[in-house]
Design brief:
single chain; 393 residues; five-stranded parallel β-sheet
Length: 393
Protein backbone atom coordinates (compact mmCIF):
# COMPACT_ATOMS: atom_id res chain seq x y z
CA UNK A 1 0.00 0.00 0.00
CA UNK A 2 1.30 3.45 -0.85
CA UNK A 3 1.52 5.82 2.12
CA UNK A 4 2.07 9.56 2.20
CA UNK A 5 5.34 10.75 3.75
CA UNK A 6 5.01 12.14 7.27
CA UNK A 7 7.41 14.99 7.93
CA UNK A 8 6.64 15.11 11.67
CA UNK A 9 7.24 11.52 12.66
CA UNK A 10 8.22 8.34 10.91
CA UNK A 11 5.97 5.35 11.57
CA UNK A 12 7.31 2.98 14.18
CA UNK A 13 8.80 -0.12 12.63
CA UNK A 14 7.28 -3.36 13.92
CA UNK A 15 9.70 -5.20 16.15
CA UNK A 16 8.85 -8.35 14.23
CA UNK A 17 7.71 -8.18 10.59
CA UNK A 18 4.02 -8.93 10.21
CA UNK A 19 3.61 -12.26 8.48
CA UNK A 20 -0.03 -13.04 9.22
CA UNK A 21 -2.39 -14.16 6.53
CA UNK A 22 -4.50 -11.41 5.06
CA UNK A 23 -8.21 -11.50 5.82
CA UNK A 24 -10.17 -11.83 2.58
CA UNK A 25 -13.87 -11.32 1.90
CA UNK A 26 -15.96 -12.24 -1.14
CA UNK A 27 -18.97 -10.48 -2.60
CA UNK A 28 -20.56 -12.57 -5.35
CA UNK A 29 -19.06 -15.75 -6.74
CA UNK A 30 -21.48 -18.20 -5.14
CA UNK A 31 -20.88 -21.92 -4.80
CA UNK A 32 -22.27 -22.73 -8.25
CA UNK A 33 -20.40 -20.02 -10.14
CA UNK A 34 -17.34 -20.85 -12.20
CA UNK A 35 -15.49 -17.64 -11.47
CA UNK A 36 -16.12 -17.75 -7.71
CA UNK A 37 -14.40 -21.09 -7.23
CA UNK A 38 -11.58 -20.00 -9.54
CA UNK A 39 -10.91 -17.00 -7.32
CA UNK A 40 -11.11 -19.02 -4.10
CA UNK A 41 -8.65 -21.63 -5.37
CA UNK A 42 -6.27 -18.90 -6.55
CA UNK A 43 -6.48 -17.03 -3.24
CA UNK A 44 -5.65 -20.17 -1.25
CA UNK A 45 -2.79 -21.33 -3.45
CA UNK A 46 0.06 -19.53 -1.66
CA UNK A 47 -1.33 -19.61 1.87
CA UNK A 48 -1.37 -15.80 2.08
CA UNK A 49 -5.10 -15.34 2.74
CA UNK A 50 -7.81 -16.57 5.06
CA UNK A 51 -11.33 -16.29 3.61
CA UNK A 52 -13.18 -14.78 6.56
CA UNK A 53 -16.33 -13.09 5.27
CA UNK A 54 -18.76 -13.61 2.40
CA UNK A 55 -21.90 -12.26 0.76
CA UNK A 56 -22.20 -14.76 -2.06
CA UNK A 57 -25.66 -14.15 -3.50
CA UNK A 58 -28.26 -11.45 -4.04
CA UNK A 59 -30.69 -13.84 -2.32
CA UNK A 60 -30.16 -13.14 1.41
CA UNK A 61 -30.84 -16.64 2.71
CA UNK A 62 -28.82 -18.32 -0.04
CA UNK A 63 -25.99 -15.88 0.62
CA UNK A 64 -25.93 -16.84 4.30
CA UNK A 65 -26.26 -20.59 3.73
CA UNK A 66 -23.57 -20.73 1.06
CA UNK A 67 -21.21 -18.83 3.34
CA UNK A 68 -21.80 -21.44 6.03
CA UNK A 69 -21.09 -24.21 3.50
CA UNK A 70 -17.73 -22.58 2.82
CA UNK A 71 -16.91 -22.77 6.52
CA UNK A 72 -17.46 -19.09 7.23
CA UNK A 73 -18.51 -18.32 10.81
CA UNK A 74 -22.26 -17.59 11.10
CA UNK A 75 -21.73 -13.95 12.06
CA UNK A 76 -19.63 -13.31 8.93
CA UNK A 77 -21.68 -15.30 6.41
CA UNK A 78 -23.52 -12.13 5.46
CA UNK A 79 -26.87 -11.82 3.73
CA UNK A 80 -25.91 -8.83 1.59
CA UNK A 81 -22.85 -6.87 0.55
CA UNK A 82 -24.19 -3.85 2.43
CA UNK A 83 -24.31 -5.88 5.63
CA UNK A 84 -20.80 -7.18 4.99
CA UNK A 85 -19.22 -3.76 4.50
CA UNK A 86 -21.09 -2.17 7.42
CA UNK A 87 -20.27 -4.97 9.84
CA UNK A 88 -16.67 -5.53 8.78
CA UNK A 89 -15.90 -1.80 9.02
CA UNK A 90 -16.64 -1.97 12.77
CA UNK A 91 -14.54 -5.04 13.55
CA UNK A 92 -11.03 -4.89 14.99
CA UNK A 93 -10.22 -7.87 12.78
CA UNK A 94 -11.98 -6.57 9.67
CA UNK A 95 -11.10 -7.99 6.28
CA UNK A 96 -8.04 -6.52 4.57
CA UNK A 97 -9.22 -7.25 1.02
CA UNK A 98 -12.60 -7.62 -0.65
CA UNK A 99 -12.92 -9.62 -3.87
CA UNK A 100 -15.84 -8.25 -5.93
CA UNK A 101 -17.31 -10.84 -8.33
CA UNK A 102 -20.83 -9.51 -8.81
CA UNK A 103 -22.65 -8.38 -11.98
CA UNK A 104 -21.07 -5.37 -13.70
CA UNK A 105 -23.60 -2.76 -12.62
CA UNK A 106 -22.91 -3.31 -8.91
CA UNK A 107 -19.12 -2.95 -8.97
CA UNK A 108 -19.07 0.82 -8.49
CA UNK A 109 -21.30 0.95 -5.41
CA UNK A 110 -19.64 -2.02 -3.70
CA UNK A 111 -16.08 -0.84 -4.34
CA UNK A 112 -16.79 2.74 -3.29
CA UNK A 113 -18.33 1.58 0.00
CA UNK A 114 -15.48 -0.84 0.70
CA UNK A 115 -12.85 1.81 -0.02
CA UNK A 116 -14.65 4.21 2.34
CA UNK A 117 -14.41 1.45 4.97
CA UNK A 118 -10.64 1.21 4.46
CA UNK A 119 -10.72 -2.13 2.64
CA UNK A 120 -8.47 -2.92 -0.31
CA UNK A 121 -10.12 -4.27 -3.47
CA UNK A 122 -9.66 -7.03 -6.02
CA UNK A 123 -12.40 -6.54 -8.63
CA UNK A 124 -13.45 -8.50 -11.66
CA UNK A 125 -13.43 -6.62 -14.91
CA UNK A 126 -14.99 -4.38 -16.02
CA UNK A 127 -14.45 -2.15 -13.01
CA UNK A 128 -17.72 -0.35 -13.93
CA UNK A 129 -19.97 -0.07 -16.98
CA UNK A 130 -19.07 3.50 -17.98
CA UNK A 131 -16.19 5.96 -17.87
CA UNK A 132 -17.90 8.45 -15.53
CA UNK A 133 -18.30 5.95 -12.70
CA UNK A 134 -14.91 4.41 -13.53
CA UNK A 135 -13.18 7.78 -13.12
CA UNK A 136 -15.02 8.38 -9.84
CA UNK A 137 -13.80 5.01 -8.62
CA UNK A 138 -10.23 5.75 -9.72
CA UNK A 139 -10.37 9.08 -7.88
CA UNK A 140 -11.56 7.30 -4.74
CA UNK A 141 -8.62 4.87 -4.95
CA UNK A 142 -6.23 7.79 -5.22
CA UNK A 143 -7.87 9.65 -2.33
CA UNK A 144 -7.81 6.66 0.01
CA UNK A 145 -4.34 5.40 -0.94
CA UNK A 146 -5.72 1.85 -0.94
CA UNK A 147 -4.75 -0.87 -3.39
CA UNK A 148 -7.09 -1.86 -6.23
CA UNK A 149 -6.30 -4.92 -8.32
CA UNK A 150 -8.27 -5.56 -11.53
CA UNK A 151 -8.64 -9.27 -12.34
CA UNK A 152 -7.03 -9.18 -15.78
CA UNK A 153 -5.87 -12.70 -15.06
CA UNK A 154 -4.03 -13.35 -18.32
CA UNK A 155 -1.33 -10.88 -17.32
CA UNK A 156 -0.33 -13.43 -14.65
CA UNK A 157 0.93 -16.04 -17.12
CA UNK A 158 4.73 -16.49 -17.06
CA UNK A 159 5.05 -16.36 -20.85
CA UNK A 160 2.98 -13.18 -21.03
CA UNK A 161 5.43 -11.63 -18.61
CA UNK A 162 8.32 -13.04 -20.60
CA UNK A 163 6.89 -11.36 -23.70
CA UNK A 164 6.54 -8.07 -21.84
CA UNK A 165 10.15 -8.30 -20.65
CA UNK A 166 11.40 -8.97 -24.17
CA UNK A 167 9.55 -5.95 -25.53
CA UNK A 168 10.91 -3.78 -22.73
CA UNK A 169 14.46 -5.02 -23.32
CA UNK A 170 14.30 -4.10 -27.02
CA UNK A 171 14.41 -7.67 -28.34
CA UNK A 172 11.73 -6.79 -30.91
CA UNK A 173 13.04 -3.32 -31.66
CA UNK A 174 10.47 -0.62 -32.34
CA UNK A 175 6.95 -2.06 -32.11
CA UNK A 176 5.11 -1.75 -35.41
CA UNK A 177 2.11 -4.12 -35.17
CA UNK A 178 -0.11 -5.55 -32.41
CA UNK A 179 -2.77 -8.12 -33.37
CA UNK A 180 -5.24 -9.53 -30.82
CA UNK A 181 -7.84 -12.29 -30.92
CA UNK A 182 -10.24 -13.76 -28.38
CA UNK A 183 -12.47 -16.33 -30.09
CA UNK A 184 -15.08 -18.31 -28.11
CA UNK A 185 -18.19 -20.31 -28.99
CA UNK A 186 -20.28 -19.94 -25.81
CA UNK A 187 -22.99 -17.91 -27.55
CA UNK A 188 -22.81 -19.57 -30.95
CA UNK A 189 -25.97 -21.60 -30.54
CA UNK A 190 -27.80 -20.56 -27.39
CA UNK A 191 -28.73 -17.59 -25.25
CA UNK A 192 -26.99 -16.44 -22.12
CA UNK A 193 -27.81 -18.34 -18.94
CA UNK A 194 -27.28 -15.24 -16.77
CA UNK A 195 -30.26 -12.94 -17.28
CA UNK A 196 -28.33 -9.86 -16.17
CA UNK A 197 -25.93 -10.24 -19.10
CA UNK A 198 -28.86 -9.85 -21.50
CA UNK A 199 -29.81 -6.54 -19.87
CA UNK A 200 -27.67 -3.58 -21.05
CA UNK A 201 -28.64 -1.63 -17.92
CA UNK A 202 -26.82 -4.28 -15.88
CA UNK A 203 -24.34 -5.97 -18.22
CA UNK A 204 -23.34 -2.74 -19.93
CA UNK A 205 -23.50 -1.27 -23.39
CA UNK A 206 -21.60 -4.09 -25.10
CA UNK A 207 -21.59 -7.64 -23.76
CA UNK A 208 -18.69 -8.96 -25.82
CA UNK A 209 -16.47 -5.93 -25.22
CA UNK A 210 -17.01 -5.74 -21.48
CA UNK A 211 -16.99 -9.52 -20.98
CA UNK A 212 -13.91 -10.59 -22.96
CA UNK A 213 -12.93 -7.72 -25.26
CA UNK A 214 -11.29 -5.83 -22.40
CA UNK A 215 -9.15 -8.90 -21.68
CA UNK A 216 -7.77 -8.90 -25.23
CA UNK A 217 -7.24 -5.15 -25.17
CA UNK A 218 -5.42 -5.33 -21.83
CA UNK A 219 -3.19 -8.16 -23.03
CA UNK A 220 -2.04 -6.05 -25.97
CA UNK A 221 -1.31 -2.93 -23.93
CA UNK A 222 0.29 -4.95 -21.11
CA UNK A 223 2.80 -6.65 -23.40
CA UNK A 224 3.44 -3.83 -25.85
CA UNK A 225 3.51 -1.01 -23.32
CA UNK A 226 1.69 1.14 -25.90
CA UNK A 227 -1.37 3.29 -25.40
CA UNK A 228 -4.18 3.08 -27.94
CA UNK A 229 -4.61 6.40 -29.76
CA UNK A 230 -7.52 5.69 -32.15
CA UNK A 231 -9.65 2.88 -33.54
CA UNK A 232 -12.26 2.02 -36.12
CA UNK A 233 -14.59 -0.75 -34.94
CA UNK A 234 -17.48 -2.91 -36.09
CA UNK A 235 -19.54 -3.96 -33.06
CA UNK A 236 -22.72 -6.01 -33.12
CA UNK A 237 -24.01 -9.56 -33.34
CA UNK A 238 -23.06 -12.36 -35.69
CA UNK A 239 -26.32 -14.15 -34.84
CA UNK A 240 -29.43 -12.88 -36.68
CA UNK A 241 -31.99 -11.38 -34.34
CA UNK A 242 -29.72 -11.16 -31.30
CA UNK A 243 -29.73 -7.75 -29.64
CA UNK A 244 -26.71 -8.08 -27.34
CA UNK A 245 -23.24 -7.76 -28.86
CA UNK A 246 -21.35 -10.98 -29.53
CA UNK A 247 -18.86 -9.74 -32.15
CA UNK A 248 -16.31 -6.96 -32.56
CA UNK A 249 -13.52 -6.38 -35.03
CA UNK A 250 -11.38 -3.26 -35.01
CA UNK A 251 -8.46 -1.55 -36.67
CA UNK A 252 -6.24 0.20 -34.15
CA UNK A 253 -3.57 2.89 -34.11
CA UNK A 254 -1.19 3.07 -31.17
CA UNK A 255 1.05 5.81 -29.92
CA UNK A 256 4.33 6.00 -31.82
CA UNK A 257 2.72 4.92 -35.09
CA UNK A 258 2.18 1.19 -34.44
CA UNK A 259 -0.88 -0.36 -36.08
CA UNK A 260 -2.96 -3.31 -35.05
CA UNK A 261 -6.18 -5.27 -35.22
CA UNK A 262 -8.62 -6.93 -32.84
CA UNK A 263 -11.14 -9.71 -33.43
CA UNK A 264 -13.23 -10.80 -30.45
CA UNK A 265 -16.35 -12.92 -30.43
CA UNK A 266 -18.14 -15.42 -28.20
CA UNK A 267 -20.28 -16.68 -31.08
CA UNK A 268 -17.71 -18.52 -33.25
CA UNK A 269 -19.06 -22.09 -33.45
CA UNK A 270 -16.46 -24.74 -32.71
CA UNK A 271 -13.95 -22.46 -31.00
CA UNK A 272 -12.79 -23.15 -27.47
CA UNK A 273 -11.02 -20.16 -25.94
CA UNK A 274 -8.85 -18.62 -28.60
CA UNK A 275 -7.08 -15.78 -26.77
CA UNK A 276 -3.86 -14.90 -28.60
CA UNK A 277 -1.49 -12.08 -29.44
CA UNK A 278 0.95 -11.46 -32.26
CA UNK A 279 3.26 -8.50 -31.79
CA UNK A 280 5.96 -7.39 -34.24
CA UNK A 281 8.76 -4.85 -34.14
CA UNK A 282 11.43 -4.05 -36.69
CA UNK A 283 13.68 -6.83 -35.33
CA UNK A 284 11.16 -9.65 -35.04
CA UNK A 285 7.92 -10.80 -33.47
CA UNK A 286 6.32 -12.78 -30.65
CA UNK A 287 3.28 -15.05 -30.69
CA UNK A 288 1.41 -16.44 -27.67
CA UNK A 289 -1.76 -18.54 -27.44
CA UNK A 290 -3.53 -18.99 -24.13
CA UNK A 291 -4.63 -22.52 -25.08
CA UNK A 292 -0.92 -23.49 -25.11
CA UNK A 293 0.23 -21.04 -22.44
CA UNK A 294 3.67 -22.43 -21.65
CA UNK A 295 5.07 -21.70 -25.13
CA UNK A 296 6.08 -18.34 -26.54
CA UNK A 297 7.26 -18.14 -30.17
CA UNK A 298 10.02 -15.65 -30.95
CA UNK A 299 10.52 -15.05 -34.66
CA UNK A 300 13.62 -13.04 -35.54
CA UNK A 301 14.07 -11.05 -38.73
CA UNK A 302 17.66 -12.29 -38.96
CA UNK A 303 17.93 -15.54 -37.08
CA UNK A 304 16.22 -18.80 -36.27
CA UNK A 305 12.74 -19.15 -34.84
CA UNK A 306 12.91 -19.76 -31.09
CA UNK A 307 10.39 -21.53 -28.86
CA UNK A 308 10.63 -20.16 -25.32
CA UNK A 309 9.08 -22.33 -22.62
CA UNK A 310 8.11 -21.65 -19.05
CA UNK A 311 10.90 -22.66 -16.67
CA UNK A 312 12.61 -21.59 -13.45
CA UNK A 313 16.10 -20.79 -14.66
CA UNK A 314 18.05 -18.14 -16.54
CA UNK A 315 16.54 -19.07 -19.89
CA UNK A 316 13.66 -16.69 -19.16
CA UNK A 317 13.28 -13.26 -17.62
CA UNK A 318 13.12 -12.72 -13.87
CA UNK A 319 9.46 -11.69 -14.11
CA UNK A 320 8.61 -14.98 -15.82
CA UNK A 321 10.67 -16.95 -13.28
CA UNK A 322 8.94 -15.30 -10.34
CA UNK A 323 5.55 -16.12 -11.88
CA UNK A 324 6.41 -19.79 -12.44
CA UNK A 325 5.47 -22.28 -9.76
CA UNK A 326 6.10 -25.79 -11.11
CA UNK A 327 9.27 -27.38 -12.44
CA UNK A 328 9.98 -27.76 -16.14
CA UNK A 329 7.82 -30.29 -17.96
CA UNK A 330 4.77 -29.95 -15.73
CA UNK A 331 1.91 -27.83 -17.06
CA UNK A 332 0.45 -24.86 -15.24
CA UNK A 333 -1.91 -22.19 -16.41
CA UNK A 334 -5.17 -20.44 -15.63
CA UNK A 335 -5.45 -21.00 -11.88
CA UNK A 336 -1.79 -20.22 -11.35
CA UNK A 337 -2.07 -17.01 -13.37
CA UNK A 338 -4.97 -15.90 -11.18
CA UNK A 339 -2.98 -16.87 -8.09
CA UNK A 340 -0.07 -14.69 -9.21
CA UNK A 341 -2.32 -11.61 -8.97
CA UNK A 342 -3.52 -12.59 -5.51
CA UNK A 343 0.05 -13.25 -4.37
CA UNK A 344 1.39 -9.95 -5.68
CA UNK A 345 -1.44 -8.04 -4.04
CA UNK A 346 -0.82 -9.84 -0.74
CA UNK A 347 2.91 -9.18 -0.77
CA UNK A 348 2.28 -5.51 -1.53
CA UNK A 349 -0.19 -5.19 1.33
CA UNK A 350 2.06 -7.07 3.74
CA UNK A 351 4.92 -4.74 2.86
CA UNK A 352 2.61 -1.82 3.63
CA UNK A 353 1.75 -3.29 7.03
CA UNK A 354 5.48 -3.47 7.75
CA UNK A 355 6.17 0.04 6.37
CA UNK A 356 8.49 -1.46 3.79
CA UNK A 357 9.05 -0.35 0.22
CA UNK A 358 7.58 -2.64 -2.42
CA UNK A 359 10.03 -3.60 -5.18
CA UNK A 360 8.40 -2.71 -8.53
CA UNK A 361 9.20 -6.21 -9.79
CA UNK A 362 6.86 -7.61 -7.13
CA UNK A 363 3.95 -5.25 -7.82
CA UNK A 364 2.82 -6.37 -11.26
CA UNK A 365 -0.89 -6.87 -10.65
CA UNK A 366 -3.18 -4.75 -12.89
CA UNK A 367 -4.12 -1.42 -11.30
CA UNK A 368 -7.19 0.79 -11.41
CA UNK A 369 -5.63 2.82 -14.26
CA UNK A 370 -5.68 -0.31 -16.44
CA UNK A 371 -9.34 -0.89 -15.63
CA UNK A 372 -10.07 2.72 -16.55
CA UNK A 373 -8.26 2.31 -19.88
CA UNK A 374 -10.39 -0.75 -20.60
CA UNK A 375 -13.61 1.21 -20.18
CA UNK A 376 -12.29 3.99 -22.44
CA UNK A 377 -11.53 1.35 -25.09
CA UNK A 378 -15.06 -0.10 -24.87
CA UNK A 379 -16.75 3.27 -25.17
CA UNK A 380 -14.56 4.30 -28.12
CA UNK A 381 -15.34 1.04 -29.94
CA UNK A 382 -19.10 1.44 -29.44
CA UNK A 383 -18.92 5.07 -30.57
CA UNK A 384 -16.86 4.13 -33.62
CA UNK A 385 -19.38 1.48 -34.67
CA UNK A 386 -22.27 3.91 -34.25
CA UNK A 387 -20.48 6.59 -36.30
CA UNK A 388 -19.03 4.10 -38.81
CA UNK A 389 -15.61 5.70 -38.59
CA UNK A 390 -12.44 6.38 -36.62
CA UNK A 391 -12.57 7.62 -33.02
CA UNK A 392 -9.67 9.15 -31.07
CA UNK A 393 -9.02 8.17 -27.48
Amino acid sequence: MTTSPDVTAAPAMPATPIQRRLRLGFVGGGLHSFIGETHRIAARMDGLYDICATALSANPERSHQEGLQLGISPDRAYRSWQELVASESQRADKIDVLAVLTPNDSHHAICMAALDAGIHILCEKPITNDSTSARALADKVTDTGLEFCVAYCYSGYPMVRQAQSMVQSGALGTIRQVHLQYIQSGLADHALSDAWRNDPSRGGQSLVLLDIGTHAFHLGSYISGLQLSSLCADVGSAIPGRTVHDYVSALMHFEGGARGSLWVTNAAAGSEHGLSIRIHGDLGGLEWHQETPNRLVHRQQRGFEQIITRRKDQAVSSSAQQSTRIGIGHPEGYLEAFANLYRELALTLRAGLNHEAVPPARERFPKISEGLAGIAFVEAAVQSAAQRGWVDL
